[in-house]
Structures are given as C-alpha cells and as structure tokens.
Amino acid sequence: MNYEQVTEGIRVSVRPSFSLPYSVPKDGKFVFTYSIQMENQSEETAKLLFRHWHIHDSEGDDSEVDGEGVVGEQPTLAPGKSHSYESFCVLQSPVGFMEGYYTFIRPTGEEFCVPVPRFDLQAPWTVGGPAESDAIN
C-alpha cells in the first residue's frame, strides 16, 4: 500500500513492506523496510535539513528518532525534482506504524515542516496474507 501527502508543495510518498528474510519472528524480530519519495511540486527550491520519526510497536514500545537529512544526505530539491531513498526499522511485534516529519529550508531562509503520513507496518499474516507458519517456513 502507498501512503501520500502534499504539504507546502512537497509530495511525500511512502511504500512500506515486511522483510521476512531479515526477520526472526520466533525471537520477536520483525524487520520492515520503507521506500520514500519526496517530490518538489512547488515553484521554489527546498533543501531537506532534518527528519523526525515516531515509531510505534504494538507491543507498546514507542521510540523517537531525530537526525540530519536522510540516510546521510540532505538533498536539495529544485522545482519538479525528486529524491528517493530506502530505510528500515525493527519491531518486536508484527504490527506497528511510523509517522513523522521533515524540516526543509527555502533559499529565503524560511524553514517549514512537511509531515510524513502515518503508515502501517504489518506482517502479511496480520492482514489476510498467509498464516505466520506458512510465511516463516
């Protein structure tokens, strides 16, 4: 499933997926990857400065992650340009979600926040996919 939101002319699209090869469900290790694309649909250049994530695990273990840029980069998006990256998170349960925001800056020095839409992290057997035992074996 894709999640998408446009704020201040920046379109953020997210596609999460469960990564069975890196997960060990019997040990409470559930790895989720997510692909993100940011597209500047405005008429002004914007540079990504910071990210903030809220990660919720259905086991009740919430965490916050803050940092500069994304995966070591602070891309500058000219009008009509986009930037994509992939990352991951590890949960202790097969169900959770992530949400957050990016802080961008315009050439004028104006900073603004672009929310990342909340996106679900769900192992396939939690949403009508194969049973857990089938997915693991």
How would you describe the overall organization of this protein?
- This protein has 137 residues and is mainly beta.
- It has a single domain (3-126), classed as Immunoglobulin-like (Sandwich), CATH 2.60.40.
- Helix content is 4%, strand content 57%.
- The chain has one helix and nine strands.
- The strands form two sheets. Strands 4, 5, 6, 8 and 9 form a five-stranded antiparallel sheet that branches.
- A hairpin with a 5-residue loop joins strand 4 (46-57) and strand 5.
CA-to-CA gap between the ends?
Answer: 24 Å
- Counting DSSP E segments of at least 2 residues, the number of strands comes to 9
Main sheet: strands, sense, barrel: 5 strands, antiparallel
What oligomerization state is this entry in? single chain
Mean pLDDT: 93
Q: What's the CATH topology label?
A: Immunoglobulin-like
Helix content: under 10%
The total number of structural domains is 1
Q: What structural class is derived from the secondary structure elements?
A: mainly beta
Instruction: Give me the number of helical elements.
Output: 1
Kindly estimate the percentage of residues that lie in beta strands according to DSSP: over 45%
CATH class: Mainly Beta
- Poorly predicted sequence stretches spanning 5 or more consecutive residues: none
> Which CATH architecture?
Sandwich
Series of secondary-structure elements, N-terminal to C-terminal: EEEEEEEEEH
Which value, in Å, is the CA radius of gyration?
16 Å
Fourth CATH level, the homologous superfamily: ApaG domain
Shape: elongated
